[in-house]
Amino acid sequence: MPTVTKLRTQVGIVGAGPAGLILSHLLHLEGIDSIVIEACARKHVEERLRAGVLEQGTVDLLNEAGLGERMRREGLVHRGIELRFNRRGHRIDMHELTGGRSITVYGQHELVKDLIRARIEAGAQIFFDAGQVEIHDIEGQSPRLTLQHAEGALEIVCDFIGGCDGSHGFCRASIPAAALRCYEKIYTFGWLGILAGAPPASRELVYSNHERGFALLSMRTPQLSRIYLQCRPHEDLAAWPDSRIWEELQRRFETCEGFRLNEGPILQKGVTPMRSFVTEPMQHGRLFLAGDAAHIVPPTGAKGLNLAAADVRILARAIAGWYRSGATDLLEHYSEICLRRVWRAQHFSWWMTSMLHRSECGDGFDYRRQLAELEHVTTSRAAATSLAENYTGLPFNLPGERL
Description:
alpha/beta, six-stranded mixed sheet, 35% helix
């Protein structure tokens, strides 16, 4: 019978993405020990491209936690965004409308590198390439994680488990189905995204509503453009050679003033289907879900990573309170607190998505309605302020406070 190495920690964390790593670091700052396990290799985790727009609150959290040095040096601070329709651009000055709030463009894979380095430098244990991971006894006082690793079979006994393993992970599936209620919306379109070796043609993000479909101009660095165009959710990439991608993007970003994207070699491309998903509650026994394990938003509102950071901020505080005084109020209300913010973000992401994308089953009425809504958002200070407040991020809240 194979030997099983038994480890003891206070919090076992499944997933070495932003949610799991930020949670581990916040617990470390509270003097709480954790072990992180991750199914993928470290190289894969550090290189997979994901979102890169950080809300003001997420930036503040990272800075306060001592994780923001490289982000402050290399991140791109944006005080506004552009909504483009009828071939004209309309800038939303988020900084002015919100009293000084902004966003920072900083690639998620770069943030993950920072987080991994910080955890390793602090002596944390992270087991990459973990296989056959299972959760046990989440309804008891000593839940366990078992896994296979290069070091052999491991069993990790802990007080709490943070389920931060994404939408396709096993943590949510470890909760009895009867204990959960799931809400989902599948969209009839997706995004074809490219990373191009070309300087961004705009200093700020451009959201374009065009009769041929939506497009988004973003960036990763002053030399790298990250650009998306609306497509079918299961588009065949073979049908999209580089020349066709650039031709379509130029059309969707065109303006009356003759705007042109800077073109360059396409370094990566892929198609992302879009959906909205929420599971309630986000906890069961000693297992607490965070980030994509509990909710998915369409990327139009740039909320995914930021919701994950908000979740683990609450979870870390709740766990710290339990260790300090035995208080259980925040742990018991974890789902309630997080879900208020989640559903606000779901509404905002759905609203941005419905205002900017062409629906396959839509018609001329829908398109004209979108243009009227965009006209309202860009001419009404109240409407623009609502967009700016949601885009730069709502404040963090605890019981008794309102969003």
